[in-house]
Each structure stands twice: as C-alpha cells, then as structure tokens.
Amino acid sequence: MHEKCGVVGVSLTDREAARPLYYSLYALQHRGQESAGIVTHDGFQQHEHVEMGLVGDAFDPDDLDTLNGANGIGHVRYPTAGGVNTCCAQPFSVSFKSGSLGLAHNGNLVNAEEVREELAELGHAFTSNGDTEVIAHDLARNLLEEDLVRAVKSTMSRIHGSYSLTIMHDETVLGVRDPQGNRPLCIGELEDGYVIASESAAIDTLDGELIRDVKPGELVVLHPNGSGYDTYQLVDESRTAHCFFEHVYFARPDSVIDEELVYEVRRDLGRTLWEESGVETDVVMPVPDSGRSFASGYAEAAAEDGADTEFAEGLMKNRYVGRTFIMPTQDERERAVRLKLNPIKSTIEGRTVTLIDDSIVRGTTSTQLIELLRDAGAEEIHVRIGSPEIIAPCYLGIDMASRDELIAADKTTEEIRDEIGADSLSYLSIEGVTNALGKDHDDLCLGCVTGEYPYDVEGEQTDRDVSRPIIDNASSADD
Ligand code: SF4
C-alpha cells in the first residue's frame, strides 16, 4: 500500500516561499516518492519546477533560486490516477485568460471521466489522464465568469470523490478539503506568514504552530502578503468520511490529524488489540517500523494486566534497501525481505513471540517474516494486526492491491493464518478502530474493510445516502 500524495502551500510577508516549501516537502516525503514540485508566484508571473524523483533529487539550489515570490504551493506524488510519467507530476499549472493556476491534489476523484468528457466537448484540451488536470480546467473555466470563492464552490459542486487541494491563483494560495474530509489538511501559523499542509509535521518543520484542521467542505484563502487568512464553509455535509487508514498506516506518527496525535491513536489501537485478542508470550515485537506504535500500546496494556511479557525489537531493519517492487523477478522479490530485515536471534530463540503489524495486504511479507522468525528459533509465533481485514480496494487515492491480490478478500482469518504459517492470527475489529479513534462508524471511510464506500463509486456498494453530481446540468453552483 502506498499513500498517494502530499500537498503544501505558503504565503509569507517578505521572504521567498521556495525554501520553506522545499523543507515542507521533505516532511511530507512519506506521502509520495515518485515526483516533487513547487510553483511560486512573484506578483507578475508564475514559476515552476516539477521533477521526477525524491525531493532531494528533484531540486538543486539553482532550481530553488529561480522559484521567485513569497507565495507558492508544493506537491509530492505517488501515482494513483494517471500514469507514471512526468505529465502527471504536480503541481499542475495552467495559464488562461484571467490569470494563472497551479494545483496540487491529494486524493482521487471518482467522477473525473464524466467531468473530463464534458470539458472536452466544450473545447478543453488535456495533456494528461490525471484527475488533477480535470479540476484545474474546471476551475479555470469557472474563474472566467465568477470570483475566486464562487468559482471554487462551483467546481466543488461538480467533482465527486476525495480531494485535499492546495491551489495557487496568481499570487493567492488556497486550501480546499472535500466535503467529507477524506484526506487530511491543516493550517498553521509561521513567524512571518501562514501555511496549509497535508500533515502538521510539515508545519513543525517550519517552526510553525498548528492552528487547526481545515474543515470538510471548507476553503481557506491565504492573504498574499502573509498577514492572515479567510475561510469559507462552501459545502456542509452531515457526515464526514475520514480515511481511517491515515491514522493506522499513512500519516507520520508525529502528525496531528483531526485533532488527534497519530502516535497516540496507534498506541490506543494497540491497547485495544490486546483487550480484544491478547495472548501472553515471552516477547512482543513490532514489524519495523510500521508495527512499532501498536506494539508499544499492546505491550503496555499487557503489562497492566499482569502479563509476563517483554517488549523488544526482534527484527532489525536495513534502512538502505529500496522498495521491494523494483526487484525484477518473483524470486528476488521474495529475497527482499531478508535484505530488509534481519532477526535478532537472542530475542527470539527458544521463545514464544507475538509479532505486531499495522495491516496485511497480500500476505507475502507476513509469510516471509514468519519463516524468518521460525528459522531464528521462535517456538510459537502469534500475529496481531492493528487494523481489520482488508477485503476491498481503495478508489480514493490509496495505491492498494486489487480484490484478486488481497489475501482477506476471499479467505477466512483461519485460512490466512494457515497460509502465512502463524500459530494464531487476530485482526482488530471495526468497532475497535472506531472506539480507538473516538469517531462514529458513519464519520469514517472504512470502504476497504467493509466493501461499502462513503462515495458513489461505480460498481460498488455505498454505506450512506450519497450520489454523484449530474454533470450536464451543473454548470455553476448557487450563490
Ligand atoms: S477505502 Fe480504505 S484506504 Fe481508501 S480512503 Fe477508505 S479507508 Fe482509506
């Protein structure tokens, strides 16, 4: 599974925006490693630099020196909608009759094709197959007839799906979160300006203070001189659809999302896992790094219940090995886990072990880890997972396996246990997740673990009364 993208935007008083944007993108690198880009505006013209690769490779000091202006937006991307090539790297920029637009998108629209077709019929020419360009063209069209706030509202009335956006219209930076708030977006204050970012860790990196989350359906407009911001609640939905996997897997543990520190949420999920399916073993160990916060909460709750179990690292990670899928053959992919993780035998040999991770997608890694622990002499291996079984794909911007590849799509927990070779296996329940997050089931997206989505996804079930906008009739929103 891969997070899709990270977005950021800043407006400063009398400092160039390029370097703060660059540092923010470093803080958001975990949200996308395929490409990185920055667009700035100096009051006269827009400047952009978008490049494939990690942030550190995509920019050199000369590139940053050409990005003039105290206002700008930035983006890191992992491909979701659209191809793996430079034309889909972001921010996406376009010049039109009433100015310039830059757009950075985190999420995925589920009606992009319908909007694209209609715009194409009106004469819009597209250079990519990504949904971000669809938003940019729709907004550019609306800006020909409406002021900025109304134009954004009109576009929001036509697009359906998951989106947290930072937008640059000439030198004005905007932040928009979709009406159900699927992806995170927050606003922070700097010594000399304001910042909008996917995660608060980016604000911390700039020595700023988190002000609050951008509300679902809200537009935030930063003053171009960094002196303040205005907000507009453009759409009010009765229910939200926050992606629960942001808390479980994607976001940095040191980020605050929807007013919760992600690290503490993961520890609470680990504590709940112990309450639901705790088993007393000699040692509790995380899969590094993904299972660490869960395992620490699990072990703490176990100790409080008087369990005689040690919390220890049993697997050491080699931080210099790249992503598994760049290995060309299946055999090499299978070996990759041995390159990435090495067991600490003294923690494992002759002992019973609880291995904790955040999720199981295909089951391949779990199988390999269990083999690794058995080879290192573990007597029993009990696997505990800090999320429910993933039974369905994500259409909202997470790069996840298809149903065919998801091990839990057509297998019972007992069949999965057997396949991965564990002595026991338990997942966290859906109620355990909602309780630990302190949210109603109806305010979360749980599509990949229930098969029912909070958006109108073609061919899938929905868990609420929601439907796509009718594109032909919706040329602009009411005031
Ligand atoms: S389907 Fe799953 S991963 Fe996708 S947004 Fe919903 S909860 Fe998140």
From TrEMBL:
InterPro entries for the chain: GATase_2_dom, Ntn_hydrolases_N, PRTase-like, PRTase_dom, PurF, PurF_N
Active site positions, chain numbering: 5
Residue stretches spanning the membrane: none
Family according to the record: In the C-terminal section; belongs to the purine/pyrimidine phosphoribosyltransferase family.
Protein name as it appears in the record: Amidophosphoribosyltransferase
SUPFAM superfamilies per UniProt: N-terminal nucleophile aminohydrolases (Ntn hydrolases) (SSF56235), PRTase-like (SSF53271)
Binding residues for [4Fe-4S] cluster: 243, 394, 445, 448
Pathway, per record: Purine metabolism; IMP biosynthesis via de novo pathway; N(1)-(5-phospho-D-ribosyl)glycinamide from 5-phospho-alpha-D-ribose 1-diphosphate: step 1/2
Species whose genome carries this gene: Halovenus carboxidivorans
Gene Ontology terms describing biological process: 'de novo' IMP biosynthetic process; purine nucleobase biosynthetic process
